[in-house]
Design a protein that fits this description.
One of its GO terms (biological process) is carboxylic acid metabolic process. The chain is α/β, with parallel strands linked by helices and 234 residues long. 42% of the residues lie in helices and 12% in strands. The protein has a single domain, classed as 3-Layer(aba) Sandwich (Rossmann fold).
Length: 234
């Protein structure tokens, strides 16, 4: 039986590195942000590579749901689904999500906002995905891991995560070959340069971050959502 792991993360996190980690397992097939084309089609937002993204994935969430819960050609032991929580718009039904094993990758809002501000000047709370992430956690539960904990001690944190998912830890998750991977979305050339140079998780950087004054209120708005999730982290 395949364990279908839906890893829910917001942007400006280590979500792609986590996909690399799980994709390094011999028993795992990974899929990269399967709701991305739906999200772009539904919102009309212009992201880099928009046309290619729309052509590369189903644009109806119902079709995505069917693919994520339907038969898999290779019948892998683990089907790792890298999801962005802000892609789950209000119209997306959730009945199909009951077939998934949910997990949550969180990051301190100050770090997320400081990073996001470098690529988009005025993010909103919905852009960061914290409300959606907490809503999914309340609905389905599942293990919560903090990006800082992963970077501080990848082996310990990933072992706990895998145990919680019932899939067993594989040391292959701690390192990977540099370069692109077949599962990478067509948007990889715009966003994945750093990950493509990597061979493992980056070292944890304890340096404080500077949040632009205009975005301090956004950090404060996101903090309660993060705090509730962080209370459950492994």
């Amino acid at each position: 039986m395949t364990t279908r792991v839906a890893m829910w993360s917001g942007p400006r996190n280590i979500s792609t590195a986590m996909m690399r980690s799980f994709g390094s397992r011999a028993d795992t097939v990974a899929v990269d942000e399967p709701l991305y084309a739906y999200y772009l089609a539904a919102t009309g937002i212009d992201h880099p590579g928009r046309a290619a993204i729309l052509d590369s994935q189903p644009q109806r969430w119902q079709d995505v749901a069917a693919a994520l819960t339907g038969p898999l050609p290779s019948a892998p032991a683990v089907h790792y689904q890298k999801h962005m929580t802000h892609h789950v718009l209000p119209e997306v039904g959730r009945e199909w999500m009951g077939a998934l094993t949910h997990a949550f990758l969180i990051r301190d809002p100050a770090h997320v906002v400081a990073s996001y501000a470098k690529v988009r000047g005025e993010p909103t709370l919905d852009d960061l995905g914290y409300p959606q992430q907490l809503s999914l956690f309340r609905a389905f539960g599942g293990p919560v891991v903090d990006a800082a904990d992963v970077l501080r001690d990848p082996a310990r944190t990933l072992r706990r995560l895998c145990d919680a998912l019932g899939i067993g830890f594989d040391p292959a998750m701690l390192a990977w070959a540099p370069g692109p991977r077949p599962e990478d979305g067509v948007w990889a050339p715009y966003w994945y340069a750093g990950v493509e140079r990597s061979t493992g998780f980056a070292a944890y950087d304890p340096s404080p971050v500077e949040v632009p004054e205009r975005l301090v209120a956004l950090v404060e708005a996101a903090q309660p959502f993060y705090d509730e999730l962080a209370a459950h982290r492994l």
